[in-house]
Design brief:
InterPro entries: 6-blade_b-propeller_TolB-like (IPR011042), TPR-like_helical_dom_sf (IPR011990), Yip1_dom (IPR006977). It is a multi-pass membrane protein. It comes from Candidatus Caccosoma faecigallinarum. Helix content is about 40%, strand content about 25%. The protein is α+β, with helices and mostly antiparallel strands and about 775 residues long. Among the domains are: about 140 residues, no CATH class; about 80 residues, no CATH class; about 110 residues, Serine Threonine Protein Phosphatase 5, Tetratricopeptide repeat (Alpha Horseshoe); about 190 residues, no CATH class. Helix 5 runs antiparallel to helix 6 and helix 9 crosses helix 10. The longest helix has about 45 residues.
Length: about 775
């Protein structure tokens, strides 16, 4: 009993010390992850990128604040669209800003290519009937004609000639004028008076009765809430309707063939389909009730509803990008992507998930595939053509909006042909321009060259980026890709190792290995045959040559020494586990020292396995997982197992002592000690296509050790199989309870420490010692 008390005391000290180190490492990691931006006095546009481990770090300035336009007449801007035209052989960028002011809403047109853009501001009134709160803007050229599209979800109009039936308070069926809600206005950009009003999908019945198109769904289930729109080159309209849980609305271009003009000649839109829909995650309870329960029980469960899309964009290749506000997904306890790039059938090409609770407001994709996204607080995120994160910059201090580059409510952004960003602040009624730095321009050149298969130009641009930031992950990764597609696999692997691109590093290494094997296969075969021959010859010599026979006998004598014999017990466990565990129990074989050496070897090898594998199989390092956590976890699991198994066996009449359990558990780690070093070694010659070999070795190490531990329990405690099963279950339960109790005690000590510290500070303060 005294030994057990000492053991608990030692364990308490070890837990406190180890937990202090672990908590310290967590604190260090959390402070790194929550790194605050520099103050505005040193930089108004703070740029961050990711390092190879996925943490946000400082980067060279990607954009610099340009001009601020706060006196151009904006009073409630909603959206911006930048259109590019060829004028006298030169590219000219025009910005169209939608200002929402009810019936007095207007567009501001600005020549961004002019020397003084503010002098070119032109106010274009939107004399559209029933215009209420326009929020969406798009301009699209179709068959040589540029059309302006305005979305207004709150626009309403009742018209007597269109009727709908309803049931009054007396249960009588009556009819009344139909009230249309939510319009999309379409007009030639050079003749806005010829505008068309597109309604939600409707079907005209007899006697001018109208009802929703059946394929679109009823008003109770499918809301028509056109907040943002995008139009493809054929004229099909993609509607981001946040209140529509059924998905993104896709309308046909049949309105182009209609000669109806004005509010009184509405064009009923032709519904094609819901282009895409956000997925939902159902609870386990929902699946159980749906499978085994009744419809009544299922109706009582809260079923999650997909979030509607908040914005949409179509690039020059007719590729659709959708945006879902992160804040909406948080309220529904869902995990929706902030942005999704879609195939033509609505399925996903890639998704971008935000790690923060932010409300993204706008998305723009350049003709080169560079994606820009803005959030309400003023941060702008930039993604590459394949959705890879490049950097983000801007302000995340909404309480300091008066500083250039900071925003109160960044509602929309536009990108011109020179990659300048034009950001619209809705609350401050201004437009702020940002100019790309040389660093940012080099990144764009490198990406564009690579997409155009100009690998030499891409390499040169990436090398220029490295002059600004030599540890840039995407620059090293870009160089690796350029070399890879130029068939220089060794250089590609070198850069992929810096960027930690495991997949492409593995593919480059496969090419290097394949080339090496082709060049050296005869030598490899000769060495293998020679090694086999040497082994056979040595085997024969050890049986026939007197000197070697004596050497073999001397080795056997050394192996018979108690210390060496104790070290080799683990190999006998593998061959004869039942007999060996009985011998360990009766002290004929094994010792505490031998078992301790196995524990230490297992610890060293496990840590080596966690941190020492080749890049394709190495997922942890000191930045992502502190080694003290690994060491602490290894020691804690084994120590708690030994202790709890002893306590359970003492309750369940097991014959094994604490010493017996300690010894057989240590010797049972031999599969781990053998398999994991082999896995580490093989990781340097295998690729991800041979991942199954690495998985097999790990499973052998894990389940092999567990198997021998269970056999050790059975033999040491002289249990039946049934008794062994319950012993294992109770041991696991005790281990969980032990961890909970230890954590509770640690938290209690932490609270007491804080209380004592606060009392000491109060005494010092009252005594005037400060």
């Amino acid at each position: 009993m005294k030994k057990i008390k000492k053991l608990f005391a030692l364990l308490g000290v070890a837990l406190i010390l180890a937990a202090s180190g672990v908590l310290g490492s967590f604190t260090a990691n959390s402070s790194f992850a929550e790194m605050k931006p520099v103050q505005a006095s040193t930089a108004t546009v703070y740029t961050q990128t990711q390092n190879a481990d996925g943490f946000l770090i400082n980067a060279p300035d990607a954009y610099e604040p340009g001009s601020t336009y706060d006196t151009i007449g904006l009073n409630n801007p909603q959206d911006i669209f930048i259109d590019t035209e060829e004028v006298n052989g030169q590219t000219v960028d025009y910005a169209y800003i939608l200002n929402s002011a009810g019936a007095d809403s207007f567009l501001l047109k600005i020549n961004l290519s002019a020397e003084n853009p503010q002098a070119s501001v032109e106010n274009i009134p939107l004399n559209f009937s029933a215009l209420n709160t326009p929020t969406g803007l798009w301009i699209q050229e179709i068959e040589g004609i540029k059309y302006l599209y305005i979305a207004d979800a709150k626009a309403t109009h009742s018209e007597e000639r269109y009727r709908e039936s309803y049931i009054d308070e007396n249960g009588q069926e009556r009819d009344r004028a139909y009230t249309f809600t939510g319009f999309i206005y379409v007009a030639p950009l050079d003749n806005l008076s010829q505008y068309k009003v597109i309604t939600e999908p409707m079907v005209l019945q007899a006697n001018n009765f109208v009802e929703r198109a059946p394929s679109f769904g009823s008003d109770d289930l499918t809301k028509f809430d056109p907040q943002k729109i995008a139009v493809d080159q054929e004229g099909k309209i993609y509607v981001a309707s946040p209140a529509t849980s059924s998905g993104m609305i896709l309308l046909s271009n049949s309105y182009l063939d209609s000669d109806k003009v004005g509010l009184d000649q509405k064009v009923f839109s032709e519904f094609i389909s819901f282009f895409a829909v956000n997925n939902v995650r159902y609870s386990l309870l929902y699946y159980l009730v749906r499978t085994f329960g009744t419809d009544e029980q299922l109706s009582q469960i809260d079923i999650p509803i997909p979030a509607g899309f908040t914005n949409v964009y179509i690039d020059s290749q007719n590729i659709v990008y959708s945006m879902t506000t992160k804040a909406e997904s948080i309220k529904d306890d869902m995990s929706y992507p902030s942005m999704t790039k879609h195939k033509t059938d609505g399925s996903t090409i890639y998704k971008f998930f935000s790690t923060n609770i932010v409300e993204y407001t706008d998305i723009v994709v350049t003709s080169d595939g560079i994606t820009f996204m803005s959030d309400q607080n003023g941060m702008i995120v930039v993604l590459g053509p394949q959705g890879e994160f490049i950097y983000m910059f801007g302000s995340n201090e909404p309480n300091q909006p008066e500083i250039v580059g900071f925003f109160s409510n960044l509602i929309a952004i536009g990108i011109d042909s020179s990659y300048r960003i034009w950001a619209v602040d809705q609350e401050r009624n201004l437009i702020q321009s940002f100019n790309p730095t040389n660093y940012s321009q080099a990144i764009f050149r490198a990406m564009i060259s690579f997409e155009n298969h100009e690998y030499e130009e891409s390499r040169q641009a990436w090398e220029e980026v490295l002059q600004y930031d030599e540890l840039s992950v995407f620059a090293n990764d870009g160089l690796g890709k350029a070399y890879y597609y130029d068939l220089d696999f060794e250089e590609a692997a070198r850069y992929f190792s810096i960027s930690k691109n495991r997949t492409l590093y593995s593919e480059a290494f496969w090419e290097i290995r394949n080339t090496w094997l082709q060049d050296n296969l005869p030598i490899v075969i000769v060495i293998a045959v020679a090694a086999i021959a040497i082994i056979v010859i040595l085997y024969y010599l050890f049986k026939t040559v007197p000197a070697m026979v004596r050497f073999k006998k001397n080795v056997k004598k050394v192996k018979e020494k108690r210390f060496i014999k104790d070290l080799l017990v683990g190999f006998r466990v593998i061959r004869h586990p039942v007999d060996t565990f009985y011998e360990i129990k009766t002290n004929r074989r094994g010792s505490v020292l031998g078992a301790t050496i196995y524990y230490l070897l297992g610890l060293v090898i496990f840590v080596w396995y966690m941190y020492g594998k080749a890049l394709p199989f190495q997922y942890f390092n000191e930045n992502t997982l502190n080694s003290s956590i690994v060491i602490f976890g290894y020691i804690l699991v084994l120590f708690i197992f030994v202790l709890c198994n002893y306590l359970v066996s003492a309750i369940k009449n097991g014959e094994g002592t604490f010493k017996n359990i300690y010894k057989f558990t240590g010797y049972s780690l031999l599969p781990l000690i053998i398999c994991l070093p082999i896995a580490v070694g093989l990781s340097y010659i295998l690729t991800l296509t041979e991942q199954v070999i690495m998985d097999l070795l790990f499973q052998l190490a894990l389940w092999g050790s567990i198997f021998y531990i269970i056999v050790g329990i059975l033999e040491t405690h002289n249990y039946t199989f049934k008794q062994t099963f319950w012993n294992v279950i109770l041991t696991l339960i005790f281990m969980i309870l032990f961890v909970i109790i230890c954590l509770t005690v640690l938290l209690m000590f932490d609270q007491v420490s804080n209380l004592v510290d606060s009392i000491i500070k109060e005494v010092k303060l009252r005594a005037g010692w400060y």
